[in-house]
Amino acid sequence: MTTLDVAGIAVSPDHYIDGRRVPSDQHFELHSPIDQRLLGRIAEGTAAHVEAAIVAAQKAFPAWSAMTAAERQPLLDRFAEEIGKRADAFCALESNDAGVLLSRMRHGVVPRAMLNIAWFAQHALTLQDRPIDTEQAHHIVRHDPAGVVVIITPWNAPLMLSTWKLGPALAAGNTCILKPPEWAPLTCSLLADAADAAGLPPGVFNVVQGTGARTGAALVADARIARVSFTGSVPTAKAIAQAAGANLVPCSLELGGKSPFIVLDDADLDAAAATGALMYRNAGQVCLAGTRFLVHEKVADAFVAAMRGYVEKLTVGDPRDAATEVGPIIHPRQVERVAGFVDRAVAGGAQVLWGGAKHAFGAQYYQPTMLTGLSQGDEIVQNEVFGPVLTLQTFADDDEAIALANGTDYGLGGVCYGETSHATEVAQRVRTGFIWVNSFGIRDLAAPFGGIKRSGVGREGGDWSFEFFCDVKDVVVPKKPFKASFSHR
């Protein structure tokens, strides 16, 4: 079996189909965002690989779906354990091929990936034959597995988001085909090793690597697919929805964000500023980050001074270094995209509060940046940058803050800092899928996650994940003998 050596970790560049590694005679190159070195050549999925994966998943579906949630749980628990056994390898791989901070991988992402699998395996037990009693009948509500599921994950958090979707999909009894991001596929490949070691039956979990335009497009357009779960950009989501829609295949789409970070005049400015600096985490490549700072005009100067103090202390550098807090941008094309947003905004009259240029550390590093002097209709206010670039606007009262917060086509997340009851009241008026009050990043697997408007369709988490990955069926048993009649009297 062919393997790559990445930071001393052996990882396969091949697909994983029907319980075995499958090579390809077509490949694409993978480079590290840290220093642009070649990590290896990755197998690219062809029509034959897509066909093999679908057939394998179809073949595995009857036996896997026939198992009860309790019978699947030990296998999925072992899957989570096998992820844990490979914690160092997952950390090293994702840090090298996606630029994620090694410390964040170790303390946040890998434990969460394990929890994603184990928690949903446990939660699936609660979905068994839920009863509803009415005067006329006894209803048995079943969550039956839908079939073969395609999961497509983005490059900013491949391990976390793959397991976030795989957990409920597998626990519900579906068989899965994972299409990793071509810019960061290595941890998804290692997931296949963990699944194999855990004893998941062949075909239950498959990994087909490749580009979205070729491999992903072939998967989502196939009529044998029962569900498509995608996290990524709006343009790609539109193409997926159109292709899947031709076969009436349901899609869950978690898309971009342009979330407001509201600072009210009664906010704890130091706490808000400290949280504001967190928006540069993962080099700003976080969909749920609050990237549009909306600050009350009375406290704007004090807030900017406080946040500047935190930002100046941020260390930009190699994500493998424990001291680093802001790492690289994933790809040269993304670096140019980020720089282009800033350059056009400055040319149009925006002022740079800090940053505003590429960072001297390396080719794919950009300075943590804050721009102000912007209008609501400006490109950088309206569109997702997906880099370490924030904007700041001021407001005079709550109504103006809410109008600005709701004034884009996105509606994923948000942050609101202020006196708790005041901030809660404002937060409830912001049109978004979720919003944190005096906090950021608090997540619970039982809670819904997703956006509105261009930020997505559907919800993930808890029962919401199972509602998507299952066919919900009502078995109706009358309480009295039923006599058929055409009479309406």
From TrEMBL:
InterPro entries given in the database record: Ald_DH/histidinol_DH, Ald_DH_C, Ald_DH_CS_CYS, Ald_DH_CS_GLU, Ald_DH_N, Aldehyde_DH_dom
Pfam families named among the record's database cross-references: Aldedh (PF00171)
Gene3D superfamilies registered for this protein in UniProt: Aldehyde Dehydrogenase, Chain A, domain 1, Aldehyde Dehydrogenase, Chain A, domain 2
Keyword Oxidoreductase among UniProt keywords: yes
Highest taxon of source: Bacteria
Protein family (similarity comment): Belongs to the aldehyde dehydrogenase family.
Protein name: 4-(hydroxymethyl)benzenesulfonate dehydrogenase
Species name: Variovorax guangxiensis
